[in-house]
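Deliverable D4.2, example record:
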Amino acid sequence: MTSLVEFTARTLATSRPVPFGALIVHTASGKTLLRATNAVARENDPSAHAELRAVRLACKKIKSYSLAGYTLYTTCEPCPMCMANALWAGLDRVVYGATIADANRHCRQVRVPARELARRSDMNTLVEGPLLRPLCNTLFTHPNMQRAFATWSSRKK
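Output generated by the structure prediction step:
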């Protein structure tokens, strides 16, 4: 998770910082398959969340629609769209840092917990977190991210 936060924090020095990063690793070996950050604004795609992008890219990389045998780490608890995608991909486990409630203090969120989606599914993906929550929250509270949040017109106060 620490390396994922460091990877995601690199965006804080860009013109489009994001606090959302995702990493997919082989569950047994811990070997990194790939990592991604949120690209909603960069790609003009509301579905370009870090977790969704990571799953898409990982499936293309291994040429399979199944990510059984892999774990997804994410800097923030996956939204329902991302968690559903993780379930459909057959990931062994999803491990998150900050919570949906943490993110909602800064930007809009669909406040359905990842564990709730997993519980209501007939797909078996273990959900763990929060892990290193204070560290992951530094991505949200960084001054450059705070300035970016102020420009996100979709935020309802």
